[in-house]
Amino acid sequence: MDAAAQPYDAIVLGAGAAGMMCALTAGQRGLRVLLIDHGDAPGRKILISGGGRCNFTNLHTAPDRYLSANPHFAKSALGRYSPQDFLTLIERHGIAWHEKTLGQLFCDGSARQIVDLLMQECAEAGVTLLLGHPVAAIAQRDGLFHVTRNGIDLAARALVLATGGPAIPKLGATGFAYDVARQFGLSVVQPRPALVPFTLGAEEALFQSLSGVATEVEVHWQKTRFREAALFTHKGLSGPAMLQISSYWQHRTPIAVDFAPDAAPGWLVEHKQRQPRGAVRRVLASGLPARLAEVLAERLGLDGELGTITDKRLRAAEAQLARWPFQPNGTEGFAKAEVTAGGIATRELSSRTMMATRVPGLYAIGECVDVTGWLGGYNFQWAWASGWAAGQAL
Ligand code: FDA
Prior knowledge:
- This is NAD(P)/FAD-dependent oxidoreductase.
- InterPro entries: BaiN-like (IPR004792), BaiN-like_dom_sf (IPR023166), FAD/NAD-bd_sf (IPR036188), RsdA/BaiN/AoA(So)-like_dom (IPR055178), RsdA/BaiN/AoA(So)_Rossmann (IPR057661).
- Its cofactor is FAD.
- Residues 192-339 form the RsdA/BaiN/AoA(So)-like insert domain.
- Pfam families: HI0933_like, HI0933_like_1st.
- By secondary structure, the chain is an alpha+beta fold.
- Helices cover 30% and strands 25% of the residues.
- Helix 1 (17-28) links the parallel strand 1 (8-13) and strand 2 (33-37).
- Helix 1 runs parallel beside helix 5 and helix 1 runs parallel beside helix 13.
- The chain starts with 7 loop residues before the first strand and ends with a helix.
- The structure holds dihydroflavine-adenine dinucleotide.
């Protein structure tokens, strides 16, 4: 029978992490599912994720590691599909994995294994996959959702938006889900780049000369802080600590960096007492990369031997090293963002099923929803969990 003649149970738009998980879950329940992507291949972000090894989940997944206008929204889905559930799937497919750091789980081999797993599960669940053509129009009539693609009308009783957000447009990322959501009267929380490097202005040129230097720091923005590596780039600041804080950061506000997060109070004065002839930059270089120590000493205006500097000045330097202010003038934007924060407003969706409460049959999952995880496998765990929740409910 012609696909157009008999409506599907569900059309899932977007063959990324969330869309594939949703499609295979619904397919396993015996539903007729059509999975559509405008790209030539499924799971393109999975393939490049985690440096090609896909950081597919995080053992410390908890709702407080997600940003959303409603911090409670992710609880139900994350509680019902856990990192262990995904791990069970991984192990059933014989995929070797390891914990890198901070609960982050990666494939030993390649991210390709995750895409192959999802595709195999979709195939076994009878999911039909259509790749390579943009969706021209979406409409709702006669109790069905109609998707026009390549001149053909495809119909289903349910439609799942799983087309992600606009981060990394060169990988086919779009804001399509927001357009469809708005078409159906759903509100969208202003999308913004997240997990994204900061840019610094010309006044910070001294730091830009450190491009390539990395060190462990504790970065603060208001009450939020992360302790991880920071990396100086020719445009500004990157590395896990900066990417994490960027998701919280608001324009025209400063961030503060603790360059000596393990140092005890009074450490510089103590150094002076022990080694009065030690040079400031040498002392700093005992815990920091030498080039960074030099720039910090220069900025602090502290040159020469410790013994020649008053305790008061050393205490002031300590305080500044513990709260070094940077005023980013922006970020590298969607072109370099790992994810999009904001998105389809959670107040429009059921947290149990991901269905739009005002538009029965319309679902939204994954990154297109206003739920954004920390760096470290949290975003894929949200994709799996929200995809599974919708796949169970369709
Ligand atoms: P996703 O973006 O994966 O999929 C959306 C799909 O919809 C795509 O296949 C796209 O082609 C398709 N689409 C878009 N517009 C369409 C349209 N108009 N019509 C039809 N199809 C359309 N997360 C993590 O947890 N661990 C990690 O290691 C990484 N690493 C990482 C590296 C890099 C470089 C990036 C950019 C991102 C990550 N992430 C990550 C984030 C992670 O990739 C992201 O959160 C998930 O892929 C989101 O899954 P979704 O299925 O929601 O969207």
